[in-house]
Backbone:
């Protein structure tokens, strides 16, 4: 079955860098767009970054542009989020997610990992 | 970016009540809207996509309607297992954006 597993979350100091990874299985990874969605403690969901199935195009919310980089390796069925210049407001649970389907009826996060906690400390 | 405004932010209803949550988009998103349910400590789960298509395995007490900028999620008969926070999200354009969430509680 479809499975996504995040790793890399930990406590990190303000201004430092962290890389999150998402290992996937149970589907043909190269056919699907993927996303990173975060949730600050006690707050709502925020779509941080997305990347197309072939890696040709990516998208970011304004607050992370120039600091975060989403990438994927279709040969290893994994994707990552490189987070630089971390701020206190980047603290939260980071979920990796896969598009529901490989056509435009399903370009939304339909399958999710369990989340990994990132805490930015001062 | 497309802004999503969800209301109410919380509600309390009795078991068996009909519950309706509203989501408004800042511009026309056709029907590229998905509703998620999130229970404490869990990842979100999609309930309805394409504004009104029930996700496989989701009980028929959940329904969605709307198009362009105005959407609703309805729970026809609220049950204790429906206690959760519900989010709408548009996928008409990137970045994907979510409503602020509606926390549903039992009165």
Residues:
């Amino acid at each position: 079955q479809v499975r996504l597993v995040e790793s890399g979350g930990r406590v990190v100091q303000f201004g430092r860098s962290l890389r999150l990874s998402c290992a996937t299985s149970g589907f043909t990874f190269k056919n699907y767009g993927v996303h990173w969605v975060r949730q600050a403690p006690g707050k709502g969901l925020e779509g941080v970054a997305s990347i197309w199935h072939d890696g040709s195009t990516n998208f970011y919310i304004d607050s992370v542009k120039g600091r975060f980089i989403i990438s994927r390796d279709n040969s290893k069925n994994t994707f990552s989020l490189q987070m630089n210049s971390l701020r206190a407001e980047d603290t939260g649970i980071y979920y990796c997610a896969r598009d529901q389907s490989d056509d435009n009826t399903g370009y939304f996060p339909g399958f999710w990992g369990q989340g990994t906690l990132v805490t930015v400390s001062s | 970016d497309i802004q999503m405004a969800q209301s109410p932010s919380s509600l309390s209803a009795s078991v068996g009540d009909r519950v309706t949550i509203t989501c408004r988009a800042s511009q026309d998103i056709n029907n590229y809207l998905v509703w998620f349910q999130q229970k404490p400590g869990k990842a979100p789960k999609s309930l309805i996509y394409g504004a009104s298509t029930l996700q496989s395995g989701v009980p028929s007490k959940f329904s969605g309607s709307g198009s362009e900028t105005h959407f609703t999620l309805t729970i026809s008969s609220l049950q204790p297992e429906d206690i959760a926070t519900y989010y709408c999200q548009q996928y008409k354009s990137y970045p994907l954006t979510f409503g602020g969430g509606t926390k549903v509680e039992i009165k």
